[in-house]
Amino acid sequence: MTATPSRPDPTSFKVTALLTGLVAFGPVSTDLYLASLPDMGRYFGTSVEMVQMTLSVFLLGFAVSMLVYGPLSDRFGRRRVILGGVVIYVIGSLACMLAPSIEALIASRFLQALGACCGPVVGRAVVRDVYPREQAARVMSYMASAMALAPFVAPILGGWFHTLFGWRSNFILLGLFGVILLVGTWRWLGETNSHPDPHALSPLRMAGNYRTLLADRQVLGYVLVVATAFAGMFSFISGSSFVLIDVLGLPPAYFGFGFAVVVAGYIVGGFVAGKWTHRVGLDRMIGIGTIGVAVSGLVCLALAWSGIQSLPAVLLPLMVFFMSGAMVIPNGSAGAIAPHPRMAGAASALLGFVQMVCGSLAGWVHSASFDHSTRPLATLAGCLGLAALTAYVLLVRKKA
Length: 400
Fold this sequence. Notes:
Layout: H1 13-23, H2 25-31, H3 37-44, H4 48-76, H5 78-98, H6 102-116, H7 118-130, H8 133-147, H9 149-165, H10 168-188, H11 203-215, H12 217-247, H13 252-280, H14 282-305, H15 311-337, H16 344-369, H17 375-396
């Protein structure tokens, strides 16, 4: 039997790649099957809103379980919690593949999310365990840039598999992804929680921890800029297949390439943030990013409401939005988790909960307001980008 690995080496490529894969659970699980959404609606004979529920419910499951995974990892350690979560994810993926109805698929996606969220919540806590604040921000930015390869490749791969084998094949791929991460965690990820909190699961302690975090103006500011920027990005993720395929006429087999144009912005932004954050400072980099998401979102909104509905009018402003978001989310995540090291798991959980709830609401609003035009998507991008900038100006910038 394989011995339990030692504490991870921060310079280990294997550990960094594993943590990147764990944090990428969310993007991979949402982006791989995006090209299948319109056909899934036709297969099950249901509405756009019901099909998009498979995305919104996934984020809801993410949000709910995040509040539990953080304290669980503070109490029992990071390694065991990750292993248990990945097992649940694999089971949920198989249930999605076998789903006989849209209702069963939605329920299976919720189960899949309950397992998947162990990756970003506990993975970020592992980074906080191993690295100091500024270096953690730099590592998270590089991880975000590498992680963006997942949504860059996943929609293309998913579109091909959908064309060749049908929509269920995408959930087989997700199950295999989970198995790979399960094996990697078992072999390479040692325990990083040096100070387990035996009272972390106490309801009073959990409520007290979250109350302490929410009362911290610094933490609240970082959480809000991350959540609003993410929600703007998720409005595109959840609605992209309907906008690009049904509204703008892009074939499903080529959907991934259109999606990749936007995701390329996230890769560039993550690289820039990783390269420059330690020079310009974490808060200033967040400020640059929030200006970017606000301006690009408003440009997208203006083009849509001017009647300009084309691939460049959607993809180019949102590429800048994603590039700017990559400067906000990793740095904001590092900033939110750093102030309370003994509550790193709870801070990561709170951050993820608010982030996913905002994303889920953005997806629901887009599906409910979808009018077979680009206007609902562009309006969400503009409003949420402006909200991120407002949160930065009112909370983050003033904290100094």
